[in-house]
Amino acid sequence: MSIETIISNPQVSLLYHPESRIVHHEFRQFVFGNQFRTILMTGVDTMRARGACKLLSDDRGNSSLSQDDQVWANDVWIPAAKAAGFKYWALVMPANVIGHMNVEKWAAMSRADGVAAMAFSEPEAAMAWLEAQGEPPAAASADSGAPHENS
């Protein structure tokens, strides 16, 4: 299976999986401000350009978001991602307890907004779940399943 690297540096990577049409970012350390926003908006651009609707957010190295980044993500990124076709979101939990709670909050908010979102402890399980999802989701899939996978 081929993987295209869109962005790669010591802090973050943004990948695209063409066979499954999954956009995949990995935060290897705490990322905030312009770097956080650039990776997310480049992911939106990739979704739009490639006709992708699935995102794997590997947040194991990240922590909680700053208030400014939370407001930006809610007001700018989520609407832009949805306009680009965002339908499925697999989130890999950070080790940090505050970050863990933050991911749970974003998953719940996204499900309430019509995005099928699930939290996972390992990226392999998150990828498998995304690969199993159809396009587009059935109306009930946004709130189907448990909000958190325990592995």
Structural write-up:
The chain is 40% helix and 21% strand. It is of the alpha/beta class. It has a single domain (4-143), classed as Transcription Regulator spoIIAA, CATH 3.30.750. A 6-stranded mixed sheet has the order 1-2-3-4-5-6, sandwiched between helices. Strand 4 (54-58), helix 2 (67-83) and strand 5 (88-92) form a beta-alpha-beta unit. The longest helix has 18 residues, at 33-50. The radius of gyration is 14 Å and the shape is globular.
Main attributes of the structure:
alpha/beta, 4 helices, single chain, Transcription Regulator spoIIAA
Topology:
Elements: E1 4-8, E2 12-17, E3 22-27, H1 33-50, E4 54-58, H2 67-83, E5 88-92, H3 97-112, E6 116-120, H4 123-132
Parallel strand pairs: 3-4, 4-5, 5-6
Antiparallel strand pairs: 1-2, 2-3
In brief:
This protein is α/β, with parallel strands linked by helices and 151 residues long. It has four helices and six strands. The protein has a six-stranded mixed sheet, with helices on both faces.
From the spread of the alpha carbons, the general shape counts as: globular
Oligomer: single chain
Name the CATH architecture.
2-Layer Sandwich
Strands ordered across the widest β-sheet = 1-2-3-4-5-6
Weakly predicted, low-confidence segments: 136-151
Number of helices: 4
Could you give the distance between the termini? 25 Å
**Helix/sheet category:** alpha/beta
- Tally the beta strands: 6
**What's the rounded overall pLDDT mean?**
86
Give the DSSP E fraction (strand runs of 2 or more residues): 15-25%
- State the CATH class: Alpha Beta
Per CATH, what is the topology? Transcription Regulator spoIIAA
